[in-house]
Amino acid sequence: MTPLRAIGWPFAGPPTDPAWAQAIAAHPSARPARVTEQHRSGYVVAESPDESYSPESLPEWQRAKCPPESRPAVGDWVLVEGEGKAARIVALLPRFSAIKRGAAGEHYKQQLIAANIDTAFVVCGLDADFNPRRIERYLLLLSGSGVQPVVVLTKADKDGADVDAAMESLSATLAQGVAVVAVNAKDRASVDALSPWLGEGRSVVLVGSSGAGKSTLTNTLLGTEKMKTGAVREGDDRGRHTTTHRALLAMPSGTCLIDTPGMRELKPTGEEDVAESFADIEAIAAQCRFRDCSHQREPGCAVRAAVERGDLDAGRVANFLKLRDEVAAASDQLATRLAQKADARVQGKALNKRLDEKYGKH
Ligand SMILES: Nc1nc2c(ncn2[C@@H]2O[C@H](COP(=O)(O)OP(=O)(O)OP(=O)(O)O)[C@@H](O)[C@H]2O)c(=O)[nH]1
Ligand SMILES: [Zn+2]
């Protein structure tokens, strides 16, 4: 396996994707590298699992006006020219998947957390950490990203871990075709159950709350102690936050594991398709008396009736309503932000026109 392949290069031979082949042909003296870190001042890239460096980046990526999706993120492939201090990124290769999240603040923004990921292991412990609602939230955030989600339930070996009950509470998720695998993250043989998603040249991320077992699983998958695991605080089973950097880790299976702390905060971007993520509920909602039924108090609500019959899980429905509102709010913010931007552009143009009229074209 080539060093590039070990960090997730998606092709066994020459690039079969025409857009990639074209970009590479346009820069004959450049070589591919993968972004491992993104900083305010620039990027760190790698061409092998063991070495990384900071090439000069394209000046347009530093501009505030540059939309976040147009600049590289962790996991992106770029083309680099020159060696040592003269190394510079000359192009960003097209991405085939992108995990985004909404970042609230004074200005609404979207953040690109990771690019070119094949599989996201949504890690959740079968202990006090177990929360189907949080899993649904992760799945919604991953919907439309191009990344395949796989739910990994850790701590299956622990006393009190009830795999059957967990599977039952995730039945709607399973029915959507999402794989759910229960493992002991400390045990090599048990973690082998994840091998269908660990082929050569593939890239995976682990997401999940603190203490879920991400570092433990990472160490077992790598066969080494690359990640420090959090010491569990007395009483609450939650590990400390020990993941401090972003990195590409090459696994013996030939899969590249991308460590991104960015998935801790789970804010929707406003672009998620709630109807698709909760297709089971949407299908029943088609039978509500009112087309715009909010499934709260309306008469003839098929969703509430299904909950009463036991056909729909009340917790899942409540989570659907909550996430639907969150996505709608984020989507409004996104629309406002885009309108403001368009407005600023129009005003800028109008001002230039007035100045041109007053002082003549220069
Ligand atoms: N018995 C058992 N313990 C586990 C398993 N997975 C994780 N643990 C324990 O749970 C604790 C937390 O695991 P970590 O791997 O540190 O969790 P994390 O998700 O990396 O946490 P952060 O680094 O805070 O995000 C550690 O004490 C692990 O040993 C498992 O499958 N079985
Ligand atoms: Zn309804």
From TrEMBL:
Zn(2+) binds at residues 288, 293, 295, 301. Residues 109-266 form the CP-type G domain. One of its GO terms (cellular component) is cytoplasm. GO terms for molecular function: GTP binding; GTPase activity; metal ion binding; rRNA binding. Binds 1 zinc ion per subunit. Keywords: Cytoplasm, GTP-binding, Hydrolase, Metal-binding, Nucleotide-binding, Ribosome biogenesis, RNA-binding, rRNA-binding, Zinc. The keyword Cytoplasm applies. It holds the Pfam family RsgA_GTPase. Its EC number is 3.6.1.-. Residues 46-67 are annotated as: Disordered. The keyword RNA-binding applies. It is found in: Cytoplasm. Residues 115-264 form the EngC GTPase domain. Its main location: cytoplasm. PROSITE patterns: ENGC_GTPASE, G_CP. Its cofactor is Zn(2+). It comes from the Bacteria. GO terms for biological process: ribosomal small subunit biogenesis. InterPro entries: G_CP_dom, P-loop_NTPase, Ribosome_biogen_GTPase_RsgA, RsgA_GTPase_dom. GTP binds at residues 154-157, 208-216. Monomer. Associates with 30S ribosomal subunit, binds 16S rRNA. Belongs to the TRAFAC class YlqF/YawG GTPase family. RsgA subfamily. One of several proteins that assist in the late maturation steps of the functional core of the 30S ribosomal subunit. Helps release RbfA from mature subunits. May play a role in the assembly of ribosomal proteins into the subunit. Circularly permuted GTPase that catalyzes slow GTP hydrolysis, GTPase activity is stimulated by the 30S ribosomal subunit. This is Small ribosomal subunit biogenesis GTPase RsgA.
